[in-house]
Write a structure and sequence with these properties.
- This protein is an alpha+beta fold.
- It contains 15 helices and 16 strands.
- Strands 2-6-7-10-1-11-12-13-14 form a nine-stranded mixed β-sheet.
- α2 packs antiparallel against α3 and α14 packs across α15.
- The longest helix is centred in the middle third of the chain and has 20 residues.
């Protein structure tokens, strides 16, 4: 019997605000334990929370970017549960009236686009963190009260591959908006997956298991794939899937039962009496909409149509908003989008990845890259020369042309000089020459390499290929 999986994802995105959602404590990551707390985020008696307006703005931004309906009136609720890292004994969240509802994003898997629904986006505060060391559990409450957006998808995903594509698209949207750093290792972008299976053709949902707090795309894919197989095997062997929360053991590649899964009524939600309803008018929404950047999906489509770039190139150069903007600024100054995208993908991204920095951390500008590519296009330098100059420009911000003489990179484009080197190479490699003339055409590349070596990489590649072909044809006709 064939089965299909039904997957829904709950993503928690930690927001890039300077202070927490209901108090002025810092949200900076990595500070000493319990050094960023106050009576409000510690839940002391008699204190009152005060909503951070920036959190509301960020929620509306994400709602607009994911095609949601923005509710101009929403409520905060108390989600009651007891855990050592939750000092108040409840979490302030949203339940019946969230700030955003009924949206969607579009993903692409194996060349096919698919719309994935978003049930809701709501604002809430984070809990603290338990640290288990030497048989003891320690509590760090620095994270308590850090603002989160929870994004709940519709159960529209059918494979682990689709789930990862959805998460990558959502993370990229958050990065483009500049409201979350997307760091999965630090927990600022984390995911719970609800997974169930049903027989093919059925419309009723099966019993779901929740996979909790998985911190990498690779682990998410492995966890979901394992859980699908586990549930199918369980059903086929006559067992029954129970609703529960499970953890993923990445070292063994399996999911492990953690606890029974709570229902909404277990949390005894009720409106928070210390917080007024969140209310704003259409003018507030329009003001945010006017500042909204182009979202990744729209940018990718435009780059393909406007710059006639392959989809592969576009996927890479739009992964990072700063790189996409850098490409576009350069394209206004140097009218060859494909050359720009090739150079960014093969050279610039390599430099950035090696140094683990972003394009803004360098001193290269669009005008400097355009100048470098112009020098290459005009045969004043070759590709190797451009590669040698690039890191110097990224570090110094100097004019690329100023490095040509300094690094001895001036390209040789004098025909007589190149022909002289060709003749020397042919004379030094008589055996290979005779083999070439006997029909071993692959040796052409050998001669090109030898002349390049003799010229120390300075020979104009295009001219060199033409002149070697001409000389070899002359010898073959004798």
């Amino acid at each position: 019997m064939s089965y299909e999986a039904v997957i829904g994802l709950e993503v928690h995105a930690q927001l890039l605000t300077d202070s927490k959602i209901f108090c002025n404590c810092s949200t900076k990551f990595g500070s000493n334990p319990n050094s960023q707390v106050c009576p409000i985020c510690l839940g002391m008696p008699g204190v009152l929370p005060k909503l951070n307006k920036r959190v509301v703005e960020f929620a509306v931004m994400l709602g607009l970017a994911t095609n949601c309906r923005i509710n101009k009136s929403s409520l905060f609720a108390r989600k009651n549960y007891f855990y050592p890292d939750l000092p108040k004994g409840y979490q302030i969240s949203q339940y019946e009236l969230p700030i955003c509802e009924n949206g969607y994003i579009i993903i692409k898997v194996k060349g096919e686009e698919k719309r994935i629904g978003i049930t809701r986006i709501h604002m809430e505060e984070d809990a603290g963190k338990l640290i288990h060391e030497g048989g003891a559990s320690l509590v760090d409450l620095n994270r308590t009260g850090t603002p989160l957006l929870e994004i709940v998808s519709e159960p529209d995903l059918r494979t682990a591959e689709e789930a990862v594509a959805y998460l990558k698209e959502l993370r990229q949207i958050l990065l483009y908006l500049g409201i979350c750093d997307g760091n999965m290792e630090e927990g600022s972008f984390r995911c719970d997956a609800n997974v169930s299976v049903r027989k093919a053709g059925e419309t009723r949902f099966g019993t779901k298991a929740e996979l909790k707090n998985i911190n990498s795309f690779r682990f998410i894919q492995r966890a979901i794939e394992y859980e699908i197989e586990r549930q199918i095997d369980l059903i086929e062997s006559g067992g029954r899937v129970v609703q529960e929360t499970r953890l993923f053991d990445s070292s063994k590649g399996i999911t492990i039962s953690m606890r029974g899964k709570e229902e909404a009524h277990d949390y005894r939600y009720f409106p928070d009496p210390d917080l007024m309803p969140v209310s704003f008018d259409e003018g507030f929404v329009e003001e945010i909409k006017a500042k909204l950047p182009e979202i990744p999906y729209d940018k990718r489509r435009r780059f393909i149509n406007e710059y006639n770039l392959p989809e592969y190139d576009v996927e890479i150069i739009t992964t990072d908003r700063d790189i996409a903007d850098f490409f576009e600024e350069t394209a206004r100054l140097f009218n060859n989008p494909k050359t720009i995208s090739n150079f960014i993908m093969t050279e610039i991204l390599k430099e950035l990845n090696e140094k683990k920095i972003g394009i803004r951390d360098t001193k290269i500008t669009a005008s400097l890259l355009a100048k470098l590519l112009t020098l290459l296009n005009e045969n004043k330098i070759n590709t190797n020369g451009a590669r040698a100059i690039l890191p110097k420009v990224m570090e110094s911000g100097r004019d690329p042309e100023s490095f040509i003489e300094e690094l001895g990179l001036a390209q040789i484009s004098n025909e007589d000089e190149i022909l002289k080197m060709i003749d020397e190479v042919l004379k030094e490699n008589q055996k290979e020459l005779q083999e070439y003339l006997s029909g071993k055409d692959k040796l052409f590349a050998f001669f090109v390499g030898q002349v390049m070596k003799k010229s120390r990489g300075k020979a104009n590649p295009k001219l060199l290929n033409e002149l070697i072909k001409k000389r070899l044809d002359e010898l073959a006709s004798k």
